[in-house]
Amino acid sequence: MANWSNEELDTIGGADELEIAPLRDDGTEHGPITIWVVRHGDGLYVRSARGREGRWFNAARERHEGRVLAGGLDREVTFVELGDDGLNDAIDEAYRSKYRRYGAQYVDPIVGSGARAATLNVLPR
């Protein structure tokens, strides 16, 4: 599996928003949907604010492939569900730190249990 370059991590991780377009079973793109993205270490992570009920999230889980656009970069990606490996706390902190200016009204749901259960690692393809 490919790795992000430092430039890509800085660009995508530093972007306020990410356009995400998971692929449907027939290979066409679902979306794009505008969501928040965070960087933790050498990884990029996204969450569904609607938890596991989110349409884009379920599309990403079905095929595990799609496209993201952020900071002028357009990349084909693979989506990997985050297991319960202890990263969620660090990802919560990344969301709180990056998006705190939006206030608890918007940040609290994305660090809540429903969104935590709908966390994807975004990897270049």
From TrEMBL:
Pfam families: DUF2255
Name the UniProt record assigns to this protein: DUF2255 family protein
Organism: Streptomyces mimosae
Classification of source organism: Bacteria, Bacillati, Actinomycetota, Actinomycetes, Kitasatosporales
